[in-house]
Every structure is written in structure tokens, then in C-alpha cells.
Amino acid sequence: MTSSQQREPYPSDLSDARWALMEPTLTAWRTERQKTSLNRDGKITDLREVMNAILFLNRTGVPWRYLPHDFPPHTTVFGYFSAWTADSTIEKLGLHLHRMVREQVGRAAEPTACVIDAQSVKTATSVPTDTQGTDAGKKTVGRKRSIVVDTLGLLLLVMVTAASVSDNEAGIQLLSRVAADHPTISKAWVDTGYKKKAIEHGALLGIDVDVVP
After folding, report:
1. 104: in domain
2. Transmembrane stretches, by residue range (predicted)?
């Protein structure tokens, strides 16, 4: 019996089916990390409960210290979350699910085309000023979120910058990451915010950047 079966469930808890998709990756990760600091005390942490705790935090937005006591200690959960973020384990889980969804609708597991766009958003007064900027075109003071999705709308990449970073500059960085992370992509659709430099950079990477007004 897992820890989640010994307590009252939360709406954010993983179902058995969802856990079955994640379990092989996380178990393999732990096998490789048995001698790390996360396991020096000899205790075996329930990885499903760690993921349940992360999902609870993500859904509710509570601070780490406010994690309910029927989860593993917040320091333990944060330790796993930090490790999984640093070595891209969470990203690998996302990519695995992404491939599954594409195959379920009859597409190839890896995308061959993508869409790139950006949005400038206002930030709170508490946000450090050195991470903000002004989007001159949209008169927005804050940050810019640039994303890449496949033709199904499934998320491939996200990049957050100061709003003063141009779409063109952000697009160049995103195209480089797309080429590295998804080498099967040869086509990208963008809007008119992406100029000649982004188009030429895409061509150097083997990606045809098509500007759609």
C-alpha cells in the first residue's frame, strides 16, 4: 500500500493510470541516484507521493512550508523537485507524454513543424526591475513569454525574458533550441514580429521560417 492510499486523497493526486506513465522514468532515475544525498539516510521515499506533493503545490500555489503534513517533508519534496528540474527529468516526462499524444492521434512521435509566438505581460510591483523591460510596440512594462508549439498546439519550448527583448531576438534563441531539442522540425510559422535575422538564422539551422501576417 502506498502512502497516498493511507490518507484521504487530494483532487490533484495522480491516478493509477497517470502514475503508470511516470513510474518507469522516476524509478530508473532513482536507481541511478541511489548513492546521492537524497538517499544517504537509508530511507526510501515514495516517489509517487513526491510527485503528488509537487502537483498539489502546482495546483494550489501554497508556499513549500505550507505543504500538508500527510505528504513527505517539504524539504524532501523540494530536494527531489530541484534535482528533477536540474537534470531535465520533469522535461523528459513531458516529452514522453507529448510523443504519446501525437501517436494517439495518428501523428509521428516527433514533430516536423512548429509555431512560434510571444506575449508581453505586465508584472507585479514586487518583481525585480532588472528582470523587466518595456515592450515599445505594445507599451507594456514587464516580461515577455515566448513559446513554441507543434501543429497540435502541444507545448515544445518556453522562454521568459524582459519585455524589452524583441520577438526577433527571442525567436533566434528559440530556433536554436528547437533545432537542438527537436531536430526533425524543418518548418516554423511566425508572425510579422519576426524579421529577416530570424528567418536567416532558421535557414542556417535547416528550418524554413514562414512569416504569416
Report:
1. no
2. none
Task: Give me the domain span that covers residue 40.
Answer: 3-91
Four-residue CA torsion sign, 19, 24, 25, 27 = positive
Closest CA to 48 of 70, 68, 30, 22: 22
Phi, psi dihedral angles at 171 (to 5 degrees): -60, -40
pLDDT in tens, 131-153: 778 877 777 888 889 999 999 99
Is 11 contained in some domain? yes
Model confidence, pTM: 0.74
Among 83, 88, 113, 110, CA closest to 99: 110
**DSSP3 helix / strand / coil % (the chain, rounded to 5):** 45, 20, 35
Final residue before a domain boundary, out of 62, 91, 120:
91
Amino acid (1-letter code) at residue 163: A
Same domain, 140 and 78: no
The answer to whether the CB of 188 falls within 8 A of the CB of 116 is yes
